[in-house]
Amino acid sequence: MLREVVISVFGLFHPTELDIAPADHRLLEVTCGSTRKQLEGKARKLSLKVGCHVSGTFTLSVPGRIERTFTGHLRVEPGLTALLTLDLESAVAATVAAELPSTTPAAALEAQAIAVRSYFASLPAGRHAYRAFCDTTHCQHIRGAIASDHPAARATKATQGLVLQYQSKILTAMYSAACTGSRQAGVANADGYVYAAVPCNYCQRHPGNTKRLAHRKGLCQAGAADLARTGKTAEEILRHYYPGTRVTSL
Fold it and tell me: pTM here?
């Protein structure tokens, strides 16, 4: 069973420099080869090189371009490839928080959490080098660490270990922000699942969403939130957008 997820972060920026600093003035110990350096206080930072690694909560940045706070184990591979290892549930929570606003109804957040967990668990070898996923929508979007009381964290805890299964296989669950009012049909996943053209009443009523439709496979996030507002549960939402699947435990 997949217990950890490796995320390649900031690869989109092709960094030539990576800086790390403690988060919230915590003590941070960074190991680079045989050298260990302790950083303390937000003003202290270190330029990382290949072979460096660190565990804990830290702020990672590509100077002048992007800065985010993460909790997990970071190691730097050739090409300044920053690889963040998270436990599966932390990766799910961080993805849900990046994908949906915190004001999204709980049932929709829970449906998203199950879809996200299914995606990770169905691809134990990742999609990139080092058995990693990326932090962009090519894989699953992740922005950084979230608080334990964040709605996405609560949705993840409420669905801990639950995945979508289709014919004895964990589904590589796809999803998008919106659709044209009907999901794309007849497109098979590598796991054998064929998507059905299910209706999406919310997007039928709000056709302006089509400018955000992307691939239209699987769960429609706008439609899921609307179903949750009408009282549908997470499992009911998932059954609507992924016909023929069932929710099961890892």
Answer: 0.93
